[in-house]
Amino acid sequence: MDINKTLAKEFGLRQEQVDNTVALIDDDKTIPFIARYRKELTGSLDDQILRELYDRLVYLRNLEKRKEEVSSAITEQEKMTPEIEAAISAATTLVEVEDIYRPFKPKRRTRASIARENGLEPLAVLILAQEDSTAPEKEAEAFINEEKNVPDVQTALQGAMDIIAEDISDDADIRKKLRTLAGEKGELVSKAADPEAESVYMNYYEYSEPIPKVANHRVLALDRGEKENFLKVSVNLDEVAATDIILGKYIKHNNACGELVRAAAEDGYKRLIFPSIEREIRSEMTANAAEESIKVFASNLRQLLLQPPLKNSVILGLDPGYRTGCKVAVIDATGKVLDTNVIYCTPGPKTNIEASKRVIKGLIQKHGVTTISIGNGTASRETEQFTAELLKEIPQKVSYMVVSEAGASVYSASKLAAEEFPEYDVSLRSAVSIARRLQDPLAELVKIEPKAIGVGQYQHDMPQARMNDALSGVVEDCVNSVGVDLNTASHSLLSYISGINASVAKNIVAYREENGRFTDRKELLKVPKLGKKAFEQCAGFLRVRDGKNPLDNTAVHPESYAAASSLLSECGFTLADVSNGGAAGITEKADSLGIANISESLGIGVPTLTDIIGELKKPGRDLRDELPPPLLRSGDIMEVKDLKPGMELVGTVRNIIDFGVFVDIGVHEDGLVHISQICNRYIKHPLEAVKVGEVVKVRVLDVDVKRSRISLTMRLDDEAEKSAPKPKKKHEKREPKGFDPSRIRNSSFKIKTK
User: Fold this and answer.
1) Are the C-beta atoms of 554 and 578 separated by less than 8 Å?
2) C-alpha of 282 from chain center
3) Which end of the chain is more exposed for a tag (fewer CB within 10 A), N or C?
């Protein structure tokens, strides 16, 4: 297999793009670096496509390696044939390779292997040949041998049939056809392990669905129900259709031998093939569902990390609690902790509303607080109510926002938090984290293990290594796309920068603390263990504000400084103009001179030239500034019981899952917008139409006060949707009646507690 050609075909790319990208990957260039600074070579492929290509490259290389291993193993057994060699070469998946290897793979003792040890393989060959002249019982007499535990004809024939059944089971072609049949025509079936037991899986106690139509989230729900011993899940396959595939290949004549082969084939299917195929189908469905779930998680995480920071604000963080009170932390515009306290504004043994109000009012007055950030965990509702009432009593204009505190307790108890805030206890560190999440989500959330951030579904059921790789890649892409301030970034943030590992990140911080702030990027080369190769990878993503060279505060890579200076000169600007924003008109000037002409004269590609122009126009720009700001509230909160069908509200998308989105509308419980209610056009997945953190307008469709469930619609221009949604058409797939995946224990559809 020519892997690069395969990649080019699968991804619809030019061969040159793939060849260059693979060469860069093999040269240990990171994905963020390749995406940003090698656009001419890759054809401007973005980081997400590059990661998909990388994952596929790894798979195909592993496939080729496994082919070589299997080929060598078969050759060592002196059983290699041109047909087997061709089959191995043509295999496109690891499953196909393993099917080919199955007959040659060392096996544990089986009925067939025992029969072979007893010398019955020649009898199996005779029967399988199905010659009319062969009388099975008579031929079997020659194989009777008391010493080999073959006392009679029936035992000999049974042993021969066991061998035939196993040989059929090991037939790669048969297995491939049956796997295809199961995948296209099989049904996934679920029954209750105990019909009397109550559980959140009751809607799956009598469930079946064609395998091709089973949604990924249902696969994961069934897997979890089975794991928790509430469900028995199986695959149903038409046995007649399946055995017909086997018989069509193995039955040659309708004679005595043919009947024995038929019986062996049916036994092999029931005892060996189908259980194996069922496991493979289930495993494949789970793997596919997990991969799609990881993609959704990764997309949600990307959108969450890139939420606009609340700049130039003094923020008061509130970590709600009952018995231990509500922890308070105030941070300045740079994230520095100014003050901490504990108040008792929620029901508990020490409740004192008036004293709590005096503390918060004093902090607002003393530090000029402009925004309050409230964690959405335990006691969040009461804390929000307290905050809303307090804001009505003060003259200052202060807003608040409820933020997800998923992972805050994990971070506050971590070694990293202890190093960062050795003077504070765990609860106060959590309050600081909640405040910083509103101030700069990216800088704060990188301190937390990605899977603990809580935007996705069933993350605890995912293959952990694969999920960690995917989510770490998202964090890396986000950090590098935004860039970080070299003189203020924590070592946890720096460790995600291209070319910098945790050790080098700590060395950068240590160098900064010992020698003072960096004045230019070149000074990085003085940091221990940060060599020229690492500098090439990281320099463009690190910003030096108010440094010696204005270009150090841009995403222009040092390797392009000469080109940037020449560009400024050609367009009539200077480096000083970059510092004071005087180069804002460089785009118009470059267009008048002709981008292609400038590209040729400077000897750089058009994509790189375009990026440089954008950076010189807005030095130090933050791509997050172009996004809508977070939705802040100032008072007048409601409860679920206050909601009525038809009410129109504004909310923030908190989580996106396969069948809909959860929207925070300020009533503590997030409302669900089913995928059918997101927009008027057909979409396969909510991610096609909405993003985590997006501020959206919704209308209330239905409210279940007892179960605190809110049904919403975003189809505000559709008058028909003001009432409850109409039943689905017959050909559309419904969720099992009453099914509410958000109720599944330990799922991450909604995280309201730490």
Assistant:
1) yes
2) 21
3) N
